[in-house]
Fold each of these.
Amino acid sequence: MTVLELRDVRKTYPGVDALAGLDVSVARGEIVALLGPNGAGKTTTFELLLGLIRPTSGDVRVFGEEPGGRVRTRIGAMLQAAGLPDQLQVRELVRLIGRGYPTAVQVDEVLARTSLTKRATRTVKSLSGGERQRLLLALALVGTPELLLLDEPTAAMDVASRRTFWEQARASVADGATILFATHDLTEAAAVADRVVVVAGGRVVADTTPDALTHHGDDDLEEVFLALTNESSTAADEGDDR
Ligand code: ATP
């Protein structure tokens, strides 16, 4: 079953093609990494899937429906620019967000899963960067989502938190969820994802397994990534000059 699909999607801002004909499809139970240099269009893709913005052209579907509205309650999201109410306590915020979902799990269970039990009565403002990321995961998990959209979810996390994070994310997949996540950490992508989608200049330049991307480990992942994305940015820059 296809969980999400973007077909020939363009998103244009004045002077910028954030997406220039993006084609991505993710099936139920997959963990897919979205890779790409700064400005490639990763966050724009998440915003479209959440219904926060609309495409200039092309088709975006989540569980076969237009993004936003009813289908939003089937998605748990961690976005880079997520603003949080600083004065609320951690448990209060998780409970509050849980109320927006039809199938909220127990708040204390989510706090335990994200190692936040000891921080439950602390204010959001007092959390460290990594704890804040774990809180964002708690908020993404509280509605028992079928789809997790995670934009650089482990960016501020230490090694142990990252490991716990992916254990929790995998547990959600074992329960039937699907994950699309963006990262700049190629090693993390290769270790965690079933499939990597490399985006550059608003288009997909590779869509394959981590193993196939490096020709079964014969090629260096970073070199492969740079070759794929440099070629594409050069072509885009040349296009700009015309
Ligand atoms: P990063 O790795 O830096 O987070 P990204 O792949 O998430 O990058 P996007 O945030 O999707 O990239 O941005 C894609 C392009 O669209 C960039 O050139 C960005 O400046 C532009 N862009 C995104 N949102 C807007 C907006 N609201 N107005 C104008 N331009 C925008």
Amino acid sequence: MSMTQKPAWKALAQHTGEIKRTHLSELMLDAKRCASMVASHDGVVLDYSRQIATPKTIKLLLALAKQVGLQNSLKAMAAAKKINTTEDRAVLHIALRADKKQRIMLDGEDTVAQVHQVLKQIKAFSERIRSGAWKGATGKKLTDVVAIGIGGSYLGPEFVYEALRTDPAAAKAAKGRRLRFLANVDPIDVTRALDGLDPATTLVVVISKTFTTAETTLNAKTVRQWLVKKLGADAVAKHMVAVSTNLKDVAAFGIDLKNVFGFWDWVGGRYSVCSAVGVVPLALQYGFEQIEQFLAGARSMDQHLLTAPLEKNLPVIMGLLGVWNATFQGHATRALLPYCQALLKLAPHIQQVDMESNGKRVSIDGKVLPYETGEINFGEPGTNGQHSFYQLVHQGRVVPSDFIGFKYSQQAQSLKGEPVSNHDELMANFFAQPDALAFGKTEEQCRAEGIAEKLIPHKVFAGNRPSNVLLLETLNAYSTGQLLALYEHRTIVQGFIWGINSFDQWGVELGKVLAKQVRTQLSASRTKKAKVAGFNPATTAMLKRYLA
Ligand code: F6P
């Protein structure tokens, strides 16, 4: 039975008419409803009462999850079934943070044992680098790290790096060390990443699952040249290591295979931050203990996903509401709004996790879908976002939003004479914005405030704009892991409900192929004065301009 034929799907489609007649400002006055729309797990509280949803909506969404067999899909994933059918792969990023005692068997191998073997290797390696036991070519300690990688081999590690940079415990552990990222195949990014670094004290970690990604390969060669120029060719073994599944190409590049940290085809790029992809650079920067905390936080959310009943399950609720907003309410975008500067890279990371996973046109069995999947993700930390795009969110388009806040700041600050602490000032905004979106402001309210008649239409807020409010204790390694897993799982839940494959990414291939053709042309034109040929008229004209 196709998805749209499921009874709950049909009922939800019908229910949208009903829900259009409600307004959040009324729904929010029902204390019983509000109390029923809160769920929590291990210090993470989700208030979803500001969703345009009634208890009936939630009931129907949960029915849809059951009719779609969501729990069976989650179980199949956790049991290492090859649910990524277009690549014939299991999807086991939860094994990356599984407890040592757990067993997850795949093709006769225990994946958890494999994971802990690599973690042990990373622990020993990172301790040698951090203590200075491992010395560079000139005998100096390697205090700086440049992590070269793109997409899933960059965004997750940078998100976690930023999240922990101002956490007191992590910052203490990182004292005297620097971590830089180099992702874009843009010489400007190379300059920025290497600015102020000395090859003699720098370790380069090349991170690429395939080790064939054009951007990463060229950047790795460029940085190798930077190292070799100052330290000589023999320095490569001491200054370059890799994280990859492709040992053959790593060896061909000249990196000593003893210094390669492996992972497996059952780790999707965008789900790989808990593998060596993230653990190597992050353990080098913050020490292995911090990263163990990060993995423990993710594990806590994994267990919650797999064991909590659907109606109390945070990623399930968030995923179902995502489908409700995107498919049934027709909202193409959604915003991630952390009220915490350290989460400035959350939105860029989740952009990849979510959009590369769920931006699909066909069902898992290859049928063109009668509905759109995926959401356009964007976001900025509050309050910066308030002074940027919130105008549109309040009075323009409806953008379902996630507000993420913390009881305690990583950096407490209070000024004498100020009515509240700096963190309370931030959080005042955090609590105000979801209500402003939900309740809005009517003409009558404007009039009662004495606003001039001609300005009233401009000052009305229609309200009825949905949001989630997530409140956590504080941002540290553990809660960063929880947040990461929460958002990974939310995406996966949506993918299962939509009936798509959230684990492949064929949509990135076409552009790569065309770039290859352009690269060949550029090379031939530059070196042999070859004429531009084989492109459409528009591209031909622009290439001629570029080459002239
Ligand atoms: O953007 C496409 C993609 O394949 C992502 O899925 C992946 O995270 C990224 O490229 C980097 O790939 P690799 O780790 O193999 O260099």
